[in-house]
Specification:
This protein is an alpha+beta fold. The protein has a domain of 126 residues: Beta-lactamase (3-Layer(aba) Sandwich), CATH 3.40.710.10. Helices cover 28% and strands 15% of the residues. It has 11 helices and 13 strands. A 7-stranded antiparallel sheet has the order 2-1-13-12-11-10-9, with helices on both faces. It has a two-stranded antiparallel sheet with strand order 3-8. A two-stranded antiparallel sheet has the order 4-5. Strand 9 and strand 10 form a beta hairpin.
C-alpha cells in the first residue's frame, strides 16, 4: 500500500473520533500466496483496555451477507427453492396486501399480484423494508410496529410474535417491482430457522461458522469472552463527542429474544475475513471444505436489480446495485469502487467487502455508530487506503 493501514487510520484514533479499531486488507493470488496488512489501534472503550486482533464488535449490517450465504446453503440442501413462494414457511406472508401508492395512507391497499419468493427476500425486492424516502407514512409502521432500525437484540419480541406483526403490514410495492432496505434479511432469519426446525444460531453454525472456523461469531457474548467485547458509542455533543450506547454487560450479554438476520451478530475481524475468503474462493473453505457451490457464490455476488430498482434504492445504493444480502459496485466513482466488488457497511461503524478482480478482502471494525458511510470519515479513509496495492 502507499501507506500502512495503521498510518492511514491512526489519526482518527489519536484525535478521539473513534476509541479504537481493527482493520485488515488481505490479498491472495489464487495459487496459495497470501499477504495482509492489519491495523489494531486504540482501546475497546474510552479509557478501556487496549484493542486486540481478537476484540469483538457488534457488526450490524455486515451480518446480511452471512444470512444470504446460509440461505443459499439451505437451498443447496433442498429445504426450499430460490423462486419458491415464502408462504409455506412464512404463512404470515402468504396473501400480502400492497399500498395503492407508496406515499398514500397505510390502510389503502390492493392485493399482491404475485407471491413473495425467497429470491425477493434476498434481493430486498419483496416490498418490506426501508424506503429511500424516510418521510413516507410507511416508515412509522416499520419503526414502531416492526421495530426495524438499529440493532436492538433485547428490544423485540420472539420471531413468531414479530411475524404476527408482519402479517398486518402492507407491502410498500408489488413483490419484485421495487427495492426497500433491511427487513428482507430479518425475514430470512425467521425462514431459515423454520425451514431447518432449529434456532437461527444453530443453522448459522452448521452452514457457515463451523465450516469456516468462525468461532467468535454469534448473537451474544458469554461471560468468559466479554472482556473482548468493545463498547458501542454514538456521536454526541458532550466531552469527547461520544455517548455510550452499549457496554460489554449490555444488550449483547445474553441470548436475544429476536436473533436479527439483518444486523444482530457479534464478530471479529478474522471471522469475517474467513467468510470473505470463502466467497473469494468461490465457496471453498479451509482445507477444501465446500460451504457453497460456485453457482451460489456467483448468484449471491452478481448485481440483481433493474435500473428502476436501483433508483428506488436512493441513498442506500449510491454507485451500487444489490446482489443477495450485499451491495455490488456497478458505477464508477471514488477510486475504491471496482466493478463487481461485493459487500456492505454496518451502522455500528463496520465495513466488509470482497473484490474479485483484485482478489482482495477488506474488513474494518469500529465502535461508533453512523447514520451513513459519509458520517464516519474513518471509513472513507479505510476504503481509500485499501484501494492501493498491498
Amino acid at each position: 500500500m502507499d501507506v500502512s493501514l495503521a498510518d492511514a487510520l491512526y489519526p482518527f484514533v489519536e484525535d478521539g473520533r473513534v476509541p479504537g479499531l481493527v482493520a485488515v486488507v488481505a490479498d491472495t493470488d489464487g495459487e496459495g500466496r497470501y499477504q495482509e496488512d492489519v491495523a489494531v489501534l486504540g482501546r475497546q472503550a474510552v479509557d478501556g483496555p487496549p484493542m486486540t486482533r481478537r476484540s469483538l464488535f457488534r457488526i450490524a449490517s455486515i451480518t446480511k451477507p452471512i444470512i444470504a450465504a446460509a440461505t443459499l446453503a439451505l437451498v443447496e440442501q433442498g429445504l426450499f427453492e430460490l423462486d419458491e413462494p415464502v408462504g409455506r414457511l412464512l404463512p404470515e406472508l402468504a396473501s400480502p396486501r400492497v399500498l395503492r401508492a407508496p406515499d398514500g395512507p397505510v390502510d389503502d391497499t390492493v392485493p399482491a399480484v404475485r407471491p413473495i419468493t425467497v429470491r425477493h427476500l434476498l434481493t430486498f425486492t419483496a416490498g418490506l423494508g426501508f424506503p429511500s424516502d424516510f418521510s413516507l407514512p410507511f416508515m412509522a409502521l416499520l419503526t414502531e410496529h416492526l421495530q426495524e432500525g438499529p440493532p436492538d437484540p433485547q428490544g423485540r419480541p420472539d420471531p413468531d410474535t414479530w411475524m404476527e406483526r408482519v402479517a398486518t403490514m402492507p407491502l410498500l410495492h408489488q413483490p419484485g417491482e421495487g427495492w426497500a432496505y433491511n427487513t428482507g434479511s430479518d425475514l430470512l432469519g425467521v425462514l431459515l430457522a423454520r425451514a431447518a426446525g432449529r434456532p437461527l444460531d444453530e443453522v448459522l453454525t452448521e452452514t457457515v461458522f463451523e465450516p469456516l472456523g468462525m468461532v467468535d461469531t454469534g448473537f451474544w457474548v458469554s461471560a468468559d469472552h466479554r472482556d473482548r467485547l468493545t463498547s458501542l458509542y454514538r456521536r454526541a455533543g458532550g466531552a469527547g463527542g461520544l455517548e455510550l450506547v452499549d457496554g460489554p454487560d449490555g444488550a449483547w450479554s445474553s441470548p436475544p429474544a429476536f436473533p436479527s438476520g439483518a444486523g444482530g451478530l457479534v464478530s471479529t475481524v478474522d471471522d469475517w475475513l474467513a467468510f470473505g475468503r470463502m466467497l473469494l474462493a468461490r465457496g471453498e473453505g479451509p482445507g477444501g471444505r465446500r460451504v457453497l457451490s460456485e453457482a451460489s457464490v456467483t448468484a449471491m455476488t452478481t448485481a440483481a436489480l433493474s435500473d428502476a430498482q436501483r433508483k428506488a434504492g436512493g441513498m442506500f445504493l449510491d454507485g451500487q446495485s444489490w446482489g443477495f444480502g450485499g451491495g455490488v459496485d456497478v458505477a464508477p466513482g471514488e477510486r475504491w469502487r471496482e466493478p463487481g466488488r461485493y459487500g456492505w457497511v454496518g451502522g455500528t461503524g463496520t465495513s466488509a467487502y470482497v473484490t474479485f478482480a483484485s482478489r482482495r478482502v477488506t474488513v474494518l471494525l469500529t465502535q461508533v455508530m453512523m447514520a451513513d458511510p459519509s458520517a464516519l470519515p474513518v471509513m472513507e479513509a479505510f476504503w481509500d487506503a485499501t484501494a492501493a496495492a498491498v
